[in-house]
Amino acid sequence: MSIIAPKAFISFASEDRERFALDFAARLRKCGVDARLDLWEIRTGESLIQKIFEMGVGYADVFIVVLSSLSVQLPWVRELDPGVVERMEKATRLMLVVIEECETPPALGHLWGAQFAAGATYDEELKRVVEVIFEEMRTKGLEDSALEMARPVSQLHPDLRRGDSLVLAALCAECVETGLLAFRPYLLMERLRAAGLSAVDIDASLKFLDELGFIKVSRANLGQVLLISVSTTVVHRYLGESRLRYKEEVNLMAGKIVNERALNDGVLRTATGLPEGVVRCILRFLESEGFVELLVIDKNAMFVKSVSARLRRLMG
């Protein structure tokens, strides 16, 4: 059991308080879950959505919605349209707890639910709920560190979701680490799955990023990803957000090329003290902007073949 208790917010209709919610929360607490109950009781006429976005649903590892034949008839259930559910899922894990035979609201139909209705074994279902909650806390901890990695690219496009940003940032980091803008992504895929993304989520993000022109994905006939190429501009912006002195580093390299005739990646690494991958990515950027023309030999060495008059004037 974790020293830090996972938080679970439990939303329920006031009619289900005495007959289920109080005992359920007490049992969760005995299992080591910090179950929060009172703030999330929905009384007649109250808005669940207003509570959710005023009180910060994202502070919970799991948000549990208790469904019963009574609760599904109340107005707050109609507030849970697909758009609202999507907003909630970006902030936390949603889970259903069904305590009796009832019709699940359509917007919640895709969610995993524990069945406490007649015929179900209470202790077994409770155990499953607790396992899911602790697994979610573990995954969220992994994601927190991953989200910090995703930060440099999160503002590149307004439609990027958390998973898209994480995938794109991981691709950029791979470019910077290897100095290559195209690579086979097998080990990278494993790291993304370890960060909590499913294979389906990763593939969906790759397709979306490809449509945006941020990356180019080459696939086999059956759809397997063979090679991923990342846009030079995207890597440049990633470096600009992730390296505090990146602009100075670009200018330093340009100066070394023009004024000291440091014309290959090895000499530039020595002259600037920058990592190999950063040097190679900056050279690619300078080429994309028309400042230099590169000659690449077997992906192992990069030479500056020519320098533009514009760069010479800027650095002169």
Key words describing this protein structure:
316 residues; 50% helix; elongated; Rossmann fold; alpha/beta; Arc Repressor Mutant, subunit A; six-stranded parallel beta sheet; 13 helices; single chain; 11 strands; 3 domains; three-stranded antiparallel beta sheet
Give the structure's gist in a few sentences.
The chain has 3 domains: 7-144, Rossmann fold; 154-233, Arc Repressor Mutant, subunit A; 244-315, Arc Repressor Mutant, subunit A, CATH 1.10.10. The chain is built from 13 helices and 11 strands. The protein has helices at 17-30, 48-55, 75-78, 82-91, 122-150, 162-178, 186-194, 199-212, 232-242, 246-259, 265-272, 276-288, 309-315, and strands at residues 7-13, 34-36, 41-42, 62-67, 93-98, 113-115, 182-183, 215-219, 225-230, 292-297, 301-307.
Q: How would you describe what is shown here?
A:
The chain has 13 helices and eleven strands. The protein is 50% helix and 17% strand. The N and C termini lie far apart (64 Å). The strands form three sheets. Strands 1, 2, 3, 4, 5 and 6 form a six-stranded parallel sheet that branches. The protein has a three-stranded antiparallel sheet with strand order 7-9-8. Strands 10-11 form a two-stranded antiparallel sheet. Helix 5 crosses helix 6 (162-178), helix 6 (162-178) packs across helix 9 (232-242) and helix 11 (265-272) packs across helix 12 (276-288). It is elongated, with a radius of gyration of 26 Å. The longest helix has 29 residues, at 122-150. It has helices at residues 17-30, 48-55, 75-78, 82-91, 122-150, 162-178, 186-194, 199-212, 232-242, 246-259, 265-272, 276-288, 309-315, and strands spanning 7-13, 34-36, 41-42, 62-67, 93-98, 113-115, 182-183, 215-219, 225-230, 292-297, 301-307. The chain is of the alpha/beta class. It folds into three domains: 7-144, Toll/interleukin-1 receptor homology (TIR) domain (Rossmann fold); 154-233, Arc Repressor Mutant, subunit A, CATH 1.10.10; 244-315, Orthogonal Bundle (Arc Repressor Mutant, subunit A).
